[in-house]
């Protein structure tokens, strides 16, 4: 037997095994297997309704899987005896809608969950709030109220709020989809900084240039399954599956999607007319 030390396998921060999720008769996730290594950035892409949000929501138990297992940091979070609050403390989540409290200042938006969920005292919470506002470039907005901020600034506050909790992994669900195009860049820059710092991230996004430049891996989902995954340049630039190609062509040329929608509608119309 060789005693040569081997490179240890990369730590898996997130592992999803045989994940199924149904809402009533609607099976939305049909057996997902996915791993995200420590420090890895995985972008999840796919058409509307393919189950991307449901997948993220199953990882932090906002949805209860119907079948299968999810591990975060080696702990099975789908185990019946798991401490759900402890799991959620390890996972930061950023949504399309920022969900800031409008009646609280930016600082108070950041300190409240730290105090409620982590039991931090006022000084420690304020310190973490200030540190993380600085990370997202919004120190000068500490005393502002959300309504006085742009959408991009509000989303950066929401990211700082999640970071102030000291998460091991960050999940992003279309964090820039609600933003005016000119505000998208600042939010993506913050996400890029987090990626560079080694944060483990799972990002549902339609921003293909971000996926190409920042992701270590791109996962294409359709119909509740992972159709293909791999190197971003390969998946986006030279997809192996027709479904991926079709999705990307619509995404990159929305005008084509309109044409196809009209054609789909016409075909449905024709079929309806032909049927007895
Ligand atoms: N709480 C729920 N109750 C019932 N059905 C749901 C629920 N959440 C999601 N679904 C259904 O699950 C399917 C997948 O939804 P999901 O939101 O995961 O898709 P998605 O890929 O994130 O789509 P989008 O790109 O539009 O955000 C859809 O058919 C949706 O209607
Ligand atoms: Mg979604």
TrEMBL record:
Q: Which reaction does it catalyse?
A: a polar amino acid(out) + ATP + H2O = a polar amino acid(in) + ADP + phosphate + H(+)
Q: Which Gene3D superfamilies match?
A: P-loop containing nucleotide triphosphate hydrolases
Q: Which family does it belong to?
A: Belongs to the ABC transporter superfamily.
**Where does the record say this protein resides?**
Cell membrane
Q: How does it sit in the membrane?
A: Peripheral membrane protein
Q: Keywords on this record?
A: Amino-acid transport, ATP-binding, Cell membrane, Membrane, Nucleotide-binding, Transport
What gene name is given for the protein in this entry? Answer: glnQ
Ranges of residues in domain ABC transporter: 14-248
The kind of enzyme this is, by top-level EC class, is translocase
Query: What CDD domains does the record point to?
Result: ABC_HisP_GlnQ (cd03262)
The UniProt entry's coiled-coil ranges are: none
Its main subcellular localisation, reduced to a broad class, is membrane
What is the designated name of this protein? ABC-type polar-amino-acid transporter
One of the record's GO cellular component terms = plasma membrane
Q: What is its EC number?
A: 7.4.2.1
Q: Pfam families from the entry? A: ABC_tran (PF00005)
GO molecular function (one): ATP binding
């Amino acid at each position: 037997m060789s005693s040569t030390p081997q490179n240890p396998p990369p730590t898996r921060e997130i592992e999803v095994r045989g994940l199924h999720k149904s809402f009533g008769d609607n099976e939305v996730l049909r057996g997902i297997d996915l791993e995200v290594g420590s420090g890895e950035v995985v972008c999840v892409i796919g058409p509307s309704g393919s189950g991307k949000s449901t997948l993220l929501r199953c990882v932090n138990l906002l949805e209860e899987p119907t079948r299968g297992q999810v591990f975060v940091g080696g702990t099975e979070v789908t185990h019946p005896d798991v401490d759900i609050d402890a799991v959620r403390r390890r996972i930061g989540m950023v949504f399309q809608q920022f969900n800031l409290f409008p009646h609280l200042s930016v600082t108070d938006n950041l300190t409240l969950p730290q105090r409620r969920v982590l039991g931090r005292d006022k000084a420690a919470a304020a310190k973490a709030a200030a540190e993380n506002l600085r990370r997202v470039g919004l120190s000068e907005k500490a005393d502002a109220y959300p309504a006085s901020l742009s959408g991009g600034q509000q989303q950066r506050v929401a990211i700082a709020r999640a970071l102030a909790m000291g998460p091991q992994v960050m999940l992003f669900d279309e964090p820039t989809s609600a933003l005016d195009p000119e505000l998208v860049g600042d939010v993506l820059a913050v996400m890029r900084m987090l990626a560079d710092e080694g944060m483990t991230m799972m990002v549902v996004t339609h921003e293909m240039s971000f996926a190409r430049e920042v992701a270590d891996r791109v996962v294409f989902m359709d119909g509740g399954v992972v159709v293909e995954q791999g190197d971003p340049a390969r998946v986006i630039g030279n997809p192996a599956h027709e479904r991926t190609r079709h999705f990307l062509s619509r995404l990159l040329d929305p005008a084509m999607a309109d044409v196809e929608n009209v054609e789909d509608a016409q075909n449905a119309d024709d079929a309806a007319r032909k049927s007895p």
